[in-house]
Amino acid sequence: MEEADINKERLALALEAAGLDLWENDLVSGEVVCKVHKIFSELGYDEHEGAYCIDEIFKIIHPDDVSILKQAVEDHLSGKTATYRCEFRIRAKHGDWVWYANYGKVMDRDGKNPGRRFIGVTFNIDDRKRKEDELININRRLSEQNVLLEKMNFMLQSLATSDPLTGIANRRQIMDTGEVEVQRAIRLRHQLALLMVDIDLFKQINDTWGHPMGDQVICAVAEACVHSVRGSVDTVGRIGGEEFALILPEADIGTAKEMAERLRQTIAAQSIMLEDGAPLHFTVSIGFAALSPEHFSFKDLLINADKALYSAKASGRNCVQGVPAGAVD
Q: What DSSP designation does 282 have?
């Protein structure tokens, strides 16, 4: 046997063992010198059908992959890429799409010679692509689950720090925020004030009009408090049934008094419609206090503001009272 024949047999054996199908095109004559046959047999086509598929290859390439395949060939033939590489899907006889890879190169090409022989191999990569797709889907699902987990954590955090009726901060959050703001005010030597707001005669509202109407009043007062403060600076919270606290960083006693009076007037001017169409008016009493150099806790500030609130209630309600800095006994 001639050496050339032996080499051909060795090449054929190596290609078969590697699952590769060799192809070659003559770029001058356009002739397909070596046609792939193995892949079409894998796809379920007989010899006659396989020959037709080779000649009409783009008819069985997935529509989404045709332009990609043509561009990859063009990029290599024009010298844009050193080798031709492309992955695409071919339709099997039974209708499924199967992934294949094409690797090739124009031989004998140099600066003067464009090359004539375009040689390459085609091989099945369907299992790899499906595993890649499966991994992509797994990662997508994990990403979606992470987003959902983040949303759930946010919801849990909101439930832990928010009042379920009004949506504003709950007592726990007010106490935590208050301590942080006190420490910051002390560290930076800044002002800090607190308003305590209580709905006047709230038990009478509940007893007369029912708890649903009482809830509407609570929500209306909460909304008025939120709209009266600096959204990115102050903190509004519900610390009791009909009692609210407003933490005002960078605010002195005068600023707290002005804000308290505006809030009192706003609430006194609004009303809620009863079932019979009549308006239900309601008022609030407000106590305010400012952080003093003598007292270094939010608890002290809370005591002062609560004392001021008690004074406002004792003065006939629907009014504002303050406690000067340092008034804690």
A: -
Task: Give a three-class secondary structure readout of 215-261.
Answer: HHHHHHHHHHHHHHCCCCCCEEEECCCCEEEEEEECCCHHHHHHHHH
> Using CB atoms within 10 A of its CB, is residue 179 exposed (0-12), middle (13-18) or buried (19+)?
middle
> What would the two tokens of residue 210 be?
């029912």
Is the Cβ–Cβ distance between 76 and 102 less than 8 Å? no
| DSSP structure class, residue 2 | -
Buried/exposed code over 264-303 (b: 16+ C-beta within 10 A; e: otherwise): beebeeeeeeeeeeeebebbbbbbbbbbbeebeebebbbb
CA-derived radius of gyration, the chain: 40
Distance of alpha carbon 127 from alpha carbon 8, whole angstroms: 29
Q: How far is CA 15 from the centre of its chain?
A: 49
Distant-in-sequence, close-in-space partners of 246: CB < 8 Å, separation ≥ 6: 194, 195, 197, 225, 228, 229, 234, 235, 236, 237, 259, 263
pLDDT block averages, 10 residues each, the chain of length 329: 58 64 84 82 84 78 94 92 93 94 87 82 91 90 88 76 92 94 92 97 94 96 95 93 96 95 97 92 97 82 94 95 62
Q: How far apart are CA 251 and CA 257, in angstroms?
A: 10
CA distance 191 to 186: 8
Looking at the annotation, which residues are catalytic? 242
Q: Residue 61, exposed/middle/buried by CB under 10 A (0-12, 13-18, 19+)?
A: buried
